[in-house]
Amino acid sequence: MARRRRGAAGRDEEFTFVSPVVKYLLFVFNFIFWIISLVMVSIGVYARMMKHAETALACLSVDPAIMLMVVGVLMFIITFCGCVGSLRENICLLQTFCVCLTLIFILQLAAGILGFIFSDKARNKVTEVINRAIVHYRDDIDLQNLIDFGQREFDCCGGITYTDWSQNMYFSCKDDNPSRERCSVPFSCCIVSKDKVVINTMCGQGMQQLEYAEAGNHIHTNGCIDKLVNWIHSNLFLLGGIALGLAIPQLVGILLSQILINQIKDQIELQNYNQKHRSDPWS
Predict the structure, then answer these.
(1) What's the DSSP call for residue 222?
(2) Quick one: which of 93, 67, 86 has its CA closest to 20?
(3) What sign has the CA pseudo-torsion 14, 17, 21, 22?
(4) Which residues are connected by disulfide bridges in this protein (predicted)?
(5) How many helices (H) and strands (E) does the chain have?
(6) Cα separation, 1 vs 66, whole angstroms
(7) Which residue from 126, 226, 254, 283 has the fewest beta carbons nearer than 10 Å?
(8) Residue 207 gets which letter from DSSP?
(9) Are 195 and 126 in contact (CB under 8 A)?
């Protein structure tokens, strides 16, 4: 009888509420994003070192390299808590990981709702950023490539209209502007025909001096703001899918961490129970 009781007690001690599947699935989940965070920080540091100092990209309100480093460091800390917390079955680290993910998810949701409600203010902010980027167009090759890419992809020119390029010191139409690009627009504004063998890279020369209709025969006269808004309206399902793709990993991390926390708590209660009832009157 005593042997049977001792055998049962041994089986109780071997039993655990903590599921290895949940534990190591959460670890792998965090480890993948931990590696991604290291890559993000490395790219941010490399980009910052290549720039050496403040550049024209500062006109974008936030330096992309610094933003990448900040996001990477935060992501590194959060996923580190998830990795160590899942392996060590540490409730404190797991709760920190769960709370951080929940706060990030709530902030993202709030930002999306506020951006939808205050769309006019968001549009004005985007317009300011684009205008500042136009001013610094020739100051940084990365910014220049970014603007050219946007104008080619959306078939647009400037922020509101093609004459916005007069804000740039090289393309300004002021009489005292000695630049050879006076009253011109970048080549990325031009309407390029696929039938032409030889492309005229100077097609934007003097376009700001022409009337809207006449300029429209050679360049895209509509601004990028309206084109961007129209693109967003016509690709709401795509943007919704991207938002859902960002939200699902966060929700999965929150769910797995909460399940593991509850399992660890149940295991602690079991251990406390076994500790209290360790003395067996039949032994």
Answers:
(1) B
(2) 86
(3) negative
(4) 156-189, 157-173
(5) 9, 0
(6) 69
(7) 283
(8) G
(9) no
